[in-house]
Specification:
- This protein has a single domain, classed as yeast vps74-n-term truncation variant domain like (yeast vps74-n-term truncation variant fold), CATH 1.10.3630.10.
- The chain has eleven helices and four strands; from the N terminus they run H-H-E-E-H-H-H-H-E-E-H-H-H-H-H.
- The chain has helices spanning 4-13, 26-43, 58-61, 69-78, 85-89, 95-112, 134-149, 155-166, 170-173, 179-191, 194-221, and strands at 46-49, 52-55, 115-121, 126-132.
- The strands form two sheets. It has a two-stranded antiparallel ribbon with strand order 1-2.
- Strand 3 and strand 4 form a beta hairpin.
- Helix 2 (26-43) packs across helix 6 (95-112).
- The longest helix has 28 residues, at 194-221.
- The protein is globular, with a radius of gyration of 17 Å.
- 36% of the residues are buried.
């Protein structure tokens, strides 16, 4: 089943500036996991209820590829007990989920010829990262811009825009000349689409969950 948002997020974020932006960075990994959550929402396995993520057709979550099992297991366990929007989205900060997702999507994109695995050595240990092919990265960016500018019905790319906007990362990828007009078009689209507003609110909740976890990690390490 398609994981369009998560796959495209990897292609446009990883190895920007010749560095592993996604594989080793907590914030970017969490938004990557959220991309997969939105893909499962699009497939019908999840739904949004009063701003909170909830189960829909649970069997969709039990028939996913093996690399999605850590994510789907957490969704099946956490969502019935979640009392708040934050509770329903805490799983996006899981390293276990992020690493399994990364490895699975890297393998798929490598098979398609969209990435090349490379070993990157940081101060701790070597990591295998998925380096996007320049043409593949550019294809996603071109499709993203066209989807927003032309108001196309492409949920995966619209979700990608929402995530990058929440992350304040659009300026990494789109020129200062183009970005303001695209943001204006999207704001107009958002104003008339209640489903899109609900997804944007989920993205804002993810931002709050990530920030809270970062504060916790900082206090634990200090």
């Amino acid at each position: 089943m398609a994981l369009t948002t998560a796959e495209d997020y990897l292609l446009v974020t990883e190895h920007i500036g010749q560095k592993p932006v996604l594989r080793t960075r907590f914030t970017t990994q969490a938004y990557f996991v959220f991309g997969a959550v939105l893909d499962l929402l699009q497939q019908g396995g999840l739904r949004i209820v009063d701003g909170r993520l909830a189960l829909a057709e649970s069997e969709i979550l039990t028939t996913q590829p093996q690399f999605l099992k850590p994510l789907c297991d957490r969704l099946l366990t956490d969502l019935p007990k979640a009392e708040t929007a934050e509770d329903s989205l805490k799983l996006v900060t899981s390293w276990t989920i992020a690493n399994a997702l990364y490895d699975g999507i890297m393998a798929k994109l490598q098979k398609q010829g969209d990435v090349t695995p490379q070993v990157f050595q940081n101060n701790l240990k070597p990591h295998v990262i998925a380096v996007p092919q320049p043409a593949s990265r550019q294809r996603v960016l071109d499709e993203l811009i066209a989807t927003i500018r032309e108001r196309q019905d492409n949920p995966g790319l619209v979700n990608l825009w929402l995530i990058l906007a929440q992350q304040d990362a659009l300026h990494w990828l789109i020129s200062d000349r183009e970005l303001p007009s695209l943001e204006a078009v999207f704001a107009d689209r958002l104003a008339t689409n209640s489903g899109l507003k609900a997804t944007q609110q989920l993205a804002a909740t993810v931002g709050a969950v990530i920030q809270a976890k970062k504060f916790w990690m900082d206090s634990w390490l200090s």
